[in-house]
Amino acid sequence: MSLPEGLKYTAEHEWIAVDGDVARIGITDYAADKLGDVVFVDLPKVGSAAAAGRVVGEIESTKSVGELYAPVDGEVVEVNDAVVDDPSLVNSDPYGAGWMIAVRFTELPALLSADEYAALTAE
């Protein structure tokens, strides 16, 4: 399982890349692997509100349906249309081209480090 340093992680298997007051969000390689081949991604509209711990999107695979949870409170400022058009990006490049949304936040909650997330998924 690939786990880039420098990102933050959630127990719900999202990764967060923080740049100033904007968090770019996607699902981890671990989550993508558990889902299987992703065939559909439904993301929120730009301008919509995101609430930490609440569902903001849906990820469907050949095996199941998963949910994308917002790790922060804020406003969705960007969505990755490329992943909507080609959901397989979630599997092939979850930390790069497979990112999902960007949220402008006011406060960053406590998140997991790469080591903490690795320990969580090893259980």
UniProtKB/TrEMBL annotation:
Q: Which InterPro entries match?
A: Biotin_lipoyl, GCV_H, GCV_H/Fam206, GCV_H_sub, Single_hybrid_motif
Q: How is the cofactor bound?
A: Binds 1 lipoyl cofactor covalently.
Q: How does it assemble?
A: The glycine cleavage system is composed of four proteins: P, T, L and H.
Q: Which organism is it from?
A: Protaetiibacter mangrovi
Q: Which residue intervals define the domain Lipoyl-binding in the entry?
A: 22-104
**N6-lipoyllysine: modified positions:** K63
- Keyword RNA-binding belongs to the record: no
Q: Which family does it belong to?
A: Belongs to the GcvH family.
Keywords in alphabetical order, please. Lipoyl
Protein name in the entry: Glycine cleavage system H protein
Query: Which CDD domains would you find in this protein's record?
Result: GCS_H (cd06848)
Q: Does the keyword Ion transport apply?
A: no
Q: What does this protein do?
A: The glycine cleavage system catalyzes the degradation of glycine. The H protein shuttles the methylamine group of glycine from the P protein to the T protein.
Q: Which PANTHER family match?
A: GLYCINE CLEAVAGE SYSTEM H PROTEIN, GLYCINE CLEAVAGE SYSTEM H PROTEIN-RELATED
Cofactors named for this entry: (R)-lipoate
